[in-house]
Amino acid sequence: MKRRVAGFALAAAVLAADQASKSWAIGLLDTSDAPRIELTPFLALTMSWNRGVAYTMLHSDSDLGRYALVALALVASLVLGVLLWRAKSGLSVAAFGCLIGGALGNALDRLTHGAVADFLYFHTPFWAGPLANYVFNFADVAIFAGAVLLIYESLTTKAPVAS
Question: Where is the chain membrane-spanning (predicted)?
Answer without folding.
Answer: 64-84, 131-152
